[in-house]
Task: inverse folding
């Protein structure tokens, strides 16, 4: 993984360690830019059997702790994903682009292959305090909405 971090660290100069945690909970001002293989993220879910691919990203997080503003984009190439429960089925040749716009993650496009066929996805995922609240997608002129409660 290669990345470049930017942020506002001026307030840390003369701040005691105990106070730094309290300051972290007040505001964000961080920008991360770089690239990464996806395989290290496989450990985030015990259900994943395969996770491969490469991502390039530029993401900025600013604002208050309880209401962060997230902006930026991620490009995925050469991806593959599969679940341990279904080892014979993998989505391969994944490529796509998503961007974050405050409380939304917009999946502009995600394409890949599954079982000899092609798949294409796009949609919007709504966030609430870094948790998913609902996902909407459009497939063949039909809209689908999934709520996370």
Result:
């Amino acid at each position: 993984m290669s990345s470049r971090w930017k942020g506002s660290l001026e307030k840390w100069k003369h701040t005691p360690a105990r106070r730094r945690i309290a300051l972290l909970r007040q505001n964000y001002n961080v920008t991360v830019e770089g690239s990464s293989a996806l395989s290290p993220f496989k450990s985030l879910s015990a259900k994943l059997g395969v996770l491969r691919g490469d991502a390039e990203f530029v993401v900025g997080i600013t604002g208050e702790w309880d209401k962060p503003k997230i902006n930026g984009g991620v490009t995925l190439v050469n991806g593959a994903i599969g679940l341990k429960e279904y080892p014979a089925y993998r989505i391969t040749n994944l490529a796509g682009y998503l961007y974050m716009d405050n409380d939304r993650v917009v999946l502009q496009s995600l394409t890949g292959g599954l079982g000899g066929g092609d798949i294409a996805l796009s949609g919007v995922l709504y966030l609430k305090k870094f948790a998913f609240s609902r996902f909407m997608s459009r497939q063949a002129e039909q809209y689908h909405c999934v709520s996370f409660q």
